[in-house]
Amino acid sequence: MKIGELARRSGLSTHTIRYYEQIGLLPYADRNQSRHRDYDASILVWIEFLDRLKTTGMPIREMLRYAALREEGAGTEGQRRDLLKTHRERVRAHVAELNACLLVLDAKIDGYVDTDEKRIGINGAAIR
To answer: What is the reported pTM?
Structure first.
């Protein structure tokens, strides 16, 4: 598939795809007879995975390290697993932090419910 179709299907811009190739997050695409990039559909799975890493806050240097290990292939599985396990722990810690923040927000919201009930009154008439 050409770069425009890859951009459409992946949600990345063509500029981002070229940049990811340049820095090594994406492998260089094969070229067709017209010298245009020609991507295999399987790259969409890799892009989706990169998007998950990005969404979960993995620094680009670690994404690059993972991509380099992936490119090396067999023999790097342990290093890739360790990299992902370390990242997973950071994600879990962040989720726990976000959950604690949600509890604070919920308590604050619940406090406003009590205020609204006091203002409206028992029979629904507004208290002035």
So the answer is: 0.79
Contact call for residues 126 and 116 (beta carbons, < 8 A): no
Residues 6+ apart with CB under 8 A from 88: none
Q: 25 in helix, strand or coil?
A: coil
8-state DSSP, 57:
T
Distance CA 39, CA 41 (A): 6
Q: Write the Ramachandran bin of 74: left for phi over 0, alpha for psi from -120 to 50, otherwise beta.
A: beta
Q: Provide, rounded to the nearest whole percent, the portion of the chain with pLDDT above 90.
A: 76
DSSP 60-90: HHHHHHHHHHHHH-TT-HHHHHHHHHHHHHH
